[in-house]
Design a protein that fits this description.
The protein is α+β, with helices and mostly antiparallel strands. Helices cover 29% and strands 31% of the residues. The protein has helices spanning 41-60, 145-177; strands spanning 15-16, 22-27, 64-74, 82-93, 97-108, 116-127, 140-141. The relative contact order is 0.20.
Length: 182
């Protein structure tokens, strides 16, 4: 596997992982709860998308839109009164897209216990220009062993995303050729 997409522009200087890494924190209230009395998964997903979007915009130096959410894992319930920390960073970059990894941690607002990981997600963002057209992004430069591991794992996820997309397209084309309606 290559370190970057094969068509990355070598004239765009790379940015280290730490340059766009961010944490978004929010205290959960009764307005955030679902029918079970815990924080609604959609509220957590919005915080994840917000933090990932900020990271993608910082890394790309301008607007970036959510292209896909690869995976969202909810590991523990979040409760009213929890202080939620959403930590995000760019794991991998292609020509116009970026994978952003997100970890969600929660801690009681009034306790001194360490935060617990309650979720994680991987999102793909595309950098866009003023007309909404994809634009080039700088390569990400992993700095630590953990960053390098995340970079390699992101390449694997990208390969799987592309293979899945290709297999679905081929299946749909085959069904259309056989006269099956959607």
């Amino acid at each position: 596997m290559t370190d970057q997409a094969p068509d990355v522009d070598p004239d765009i200087p790379g940015k280290p992982t730490s340059a766009s890494r961010t944490t978004l924190s929010h205290i959960m209230t009764h307005n955030d709860t679902n029918l079970l009395g815990t924080v609604h998964g959609g509220v957590i997903m919005k915080l994840v998308d917000d933090a990932a979007g900020a990271v993608a915009g910082r890394h790309s130096g301008g607007p970036a839109v959510t292209a896909s959410m690869d995976e969202m894992a909810f590991l523990e319930p979040v409760r009213v009164g929890d202080l939620v920390h959403v930590k995000a960073q760019v794991n991998w970059t292609g020509r116009t897209s970026m994978e952003v990894g997100v970890r969600v941690l929660a801690e009681r607002w009034n306790e001194s216990a360490p935060p617990t990981q309650v979720g994680s997600a991987y999102l793909v963002f595309t950098a866009v220009d003023a007309d909404g057209k994809p634009r080039l992004v700088p390569p990400v430069l992993p700095e630590t062993d953990r960053d390098r591991r995340r970079h390699q794992e992101a390449q694997i996820r990208r390969t799987h995303r592309l293979a899945r997309r290709r297999a679905i397209r081929e299946l749909r084309e085959r069904h259309a050729a056989e006269g099956f309606a959607d």
